[in-house]
Amino acid sequence: RADAPEPRCAPLAYPPWMAGEWNARYTFGNAKFPRGRGALNLSVPGAGLATCLAVPNVGKSPFPFRQRYLPESGEAGGACFPDVTFNVPRLLEAFWNEAHTSYIQVGAAPRCYDTGNGCTGSDRRAPASNFTLCFSAPTRRGPRVEQRARSVTYRSESARRQRDAGEVFLAAEDVVQLNVEQELQCLYRTVTEWRPAGTGGAAGATGKMRVAAFLPAEAVADVQRSEELDTLRAVALYDYSIVLTPPSVDDEDWLQLPRRV
Q1: What is the DSSP letter of 248?
Q2: Span of 109-113, 187-191, 219-223, 229-233 with lowest mean pLDDT
Q3: Are the C-beta atoms of 8 and 155 separated by less than 8 Å?
Q4: What are phi and psi of 249, to 5 degrees?
Q5: pLDDT score of 257 more than 50
């Protein structure tokens, strides 16, 4: 296998109508296997829990959980970026309730621990296309162990389009994920279509996401050349719909500190 490449692309910038903190509801749609189930093995992203951090437990539709997008300049009206430090632990633990994040390290920033230590400062919230997540979770043999997953987005692209129903934001990312203790390399591509809900996105956004999963041996050459992963070679396709809605006063962020920032 090849090691995860260093990030070569800038983090994706999202439209201003996605800025804010939202309740995110992921709903599983379908899983397809274009080359038949015989092509699957445990090295395929999504075959094991947390081997595809875009959807850590393929097939599950978790309870809504918080996600946050921060304005680039700290002011409304400009591009925004996912708050990776905030988002990824919540995404993991919503999809896999038995997992518990120990820390997340985004880009070159110091580690942000589950106690809240090391989680303050603008560098912890800076846009980044790579992170390391450390978490404890059960294994097939039973006992909980601490595991690390390093995710690197090595290629990304986006576009904003006007269609009959209004504005559409399209985003694609090619990701290499290394699950260190398992010595497992996972390669996948996410393609997401976002639409604002309400006037100017005040009511949130709706999205459709497809994750294309690849066998590492067949896709590693694309990674080494920093080329787009060829979806025609995917061995699995996972479809989800996503709805972002404003949290109400009665909603509770179930991963709030002291465990999390």
Answers
A1: P
A2: 219-223
A3: yes
A4: -65, -20
A5: no
Q: Which residue has the tokens 């920033």?
A: 109
Per the document, the length of the chain is: 261
Q: Are strands 65-71 and 112-113 parallel, antiparallel or unpaired?
A: unpaired
CA neighbor of 53 nearest in space, from 221, 175, 236 = 175
**Which helix H or strand E contains 149, and what residues bound it?**
strand 144-163
What 3-state DSSP class applies to 231?
Answer: helix
The pLDDT, as a whole number, for residue 1 is 46
SS3 assignment, position 114: coil
- CA dist 169 and 207 (Å) reads 9
- Who has greater pLDDT, 42 or 257? 42
Question: How many CB atoms neighbour CB 162 within 10 A?
Answer: 8
**Mind listing the pLDDT tens digit for each residue in 50-108?**
999 999 999 999 999 999 999 987 666 789 999 999 999 999 999 999 999 999 999 88
Which of 259, 257, 206, 255 is closest to 66 using CA atoms?
255
DSSP H helices in the chain: 84-95, 216-224
